[in-house]
Amino acid sequence: MTQSRQYTWEDAIAAIGQDFGGVEDHVADEAIEVTAVARYCEPWEISNPIYWNRSAAKKAGYKNIVAPWSGLRQTWSYKGFWRPGDATRFAKDMNKDQSARLGSFQPAGKPLPTPPTRQGIVTDLEIEFFEPACVGDRLNLKGRRLVNVRPRQTRIGYGAFYNTASDIFNQRGELVAKINFGLFSYNPGEQQPGR
């Protein structure tokens, strides 16, 4: 999506509190499946029985096998790369340095009013839990509220730390979690204007 004007970090600061998530919710492509939970736990050797055994999960008070919390942001609420009927992810004129279009981890809305940057680093992730995500749940991510913007000159370049907040619901409309996601978006080696 092309922005119609060049934004500054001051524009982003002025937009704090606005929701950039758009009107359409970000619904995961699939419900959480028992095999997906097992495959998620295997490489990390997560052995908690509530992630593996329905009886153990029920005995602990859950409605089904629980999906590990660490997968909320990028696994259980993921909207996939491609589905039958979608346009191809690989442009016909793609050169060797391009990448295919990726799937989405957040609602499609309007872009944040930030200046163009070439790099980004995830700085923090805060999750407040309300209801566990379990096998059979299909998660829905709502909103992308701009919480704060802090321009900074760092050793690696000039940019800004900023956070966005979203809510995750299950298919029953129950609040599963509130997520606050932080990034440092910057241009390597660039100096703060006027310095």
Report on this structure.
The protein is an alpha+beta fold. It has a domain at 9-28 and 105-188: Thiol Ester Dehydrase, Chain A, CATH 3.10.129. It is 14% helix and 28% strand. It has helices at 9-14, 34-44, 54-59, 72-76, and strands at 26-27, 119-129, 140-154, 157-169, 175-188.
- The parts where pLDDT drops under 50 for at least 5 residues are none
- Tell the overall outline: elongated
Strand content: 25-35%
Give the CATH superfamily of the domain at 9-28 and 105-188.
Hotdog Thioesterase
Query: How would you sum up the major sheet?
Result: 5 strands, antiparallel
Helix content: 10-25%
Number of strands: 5
Q: What's the SSE pattern?
A: HEHHHEEEE
Instruction: Output the strand order for the largest sheet.
Output: 1-3-4-5-2
Number of helix segments?
A: 4
Report the C-alpha radius of gyration, rounded. 19 Å
CATH class of the domain at 9-28 and 105-188, please? Alpha Beta
In CATH terms, what is the fold-level topology of the domain at 9-28 and 105-188?
A: Thiol Ester Dehydrase, Chain A
CATH arch. level architecture of the domain at 9-28 and 105-188: Roll
| Overall pLDDT score | 88
Note the main attributes of this structure.
single chain, 195 residues, alpha+beta, Thiol Ester Dehydrase, Chain A, elongated
